[in-house]
Design goal:
Strand content: under 5%
Number of helices: 8
Largest sheet: 2 strands, antiparallel
Low-confidence stretches: none
Number of domains: 1
Order of helices and strands: HHHHHHHEEH
Radius of gyration: 19 Å
Structural class: mainly alpha
Mean pLDDT: 91
Distance between the termini: 41 Å
Oligomer: single chain
Strand order of the largest sheet: 1-2
């Protein structure tokens, strides 16, 4: 039976310490491309989380049977299977959302975060830890996407989930819903994230230094 502390660490690390976007800078293509609204960002984040969790589980279950020489091709095939499932589900739920996400749903297959977790973690660990690793990193990715999408929609359109937040005369910052707005918002979140981490690290160091 796995250590509860280790299991908790695998779940939590992707949210903060090893956040896929704010720390590892992975999956930048969808982060910048589909985060123009909170709905699009959340949908892409949840889709990626599902694929990451399921592919981690599948790779962990099959790790003893996959020949080392073809492991990457096999991982991609597994990931593509779950991406296809996600594609059909989104298409069935909302045609507008499917059109908004466009080709970026299919591009989940080549998201370096998913392939990286399959190779670096799921192929070397049991199913339970692999699922927690996928869930933690997926939720961290989802959180980062939503953080960008919410800010860009609020400042760019004056809405959140299509609900108006400002009076009728509000003039949105058009740049925020353009591709360049993704870079500006990501830079601001990276600054804030790293500032918080630096302050937290400073406090820990101060606590360890004897008075």
């Amino acid at each position: 039976m796995s250590d509860p502390a280790a299991s908790t660490d695998e779940l939590v690390k992707g949210l903060w310490r090893d956040n896929p976007v704010f720390v590892q800078a992975l999956g930048m293509c969808p982060v910048l491309a589909v985060s123009n609204t909170a709905v699009n960002a959340l949908a892409m984040g949840l889709a990626t989380t599902f694929v990451l969790c399921m592919s981690n589980v599948a790779v962990s279950l099959l790790r003893s049977f996959i020949p080392r020489q073809v492991r990457i091709a096999t991982y991609i095939l597994i990931i593509a299977t779950f991406v296809t499932v996600v594609d059909y589900v989104i298409h069935a739920i909302s045609l507008d959302l499917h059109r908004a996400l466009g080709a970026f749903i299919s591009l989940i297959v080549v998201n370096c975060l998913i392939l990286g977790r399959a190779e670096a973690f799921a192929s070397r660990n049991p199913v339970g830890l692999s699922l927690l690793d996928g869930l933690g990193n997926g939720l961290g990715f989802c959180l980062a996407l939503f953080s960008l999408g919410a800010v860009r929609e609020i400042l760019g359109s004056g809405t959140l989930f299509d609900v108006s937040l400002f009076p009728a005369g509000f003039q949105g910052w058009v740049v925020m819903i353009l591709p360049s707005g993704g870079f500006f918002t990501l830079a601001a979140w990276l600054l804030l994230f790293n500032w918080v981490r630096a302050r937290r690290a400073g406090r820990l160091v101060a606590q360890e230094v004897p008075s």
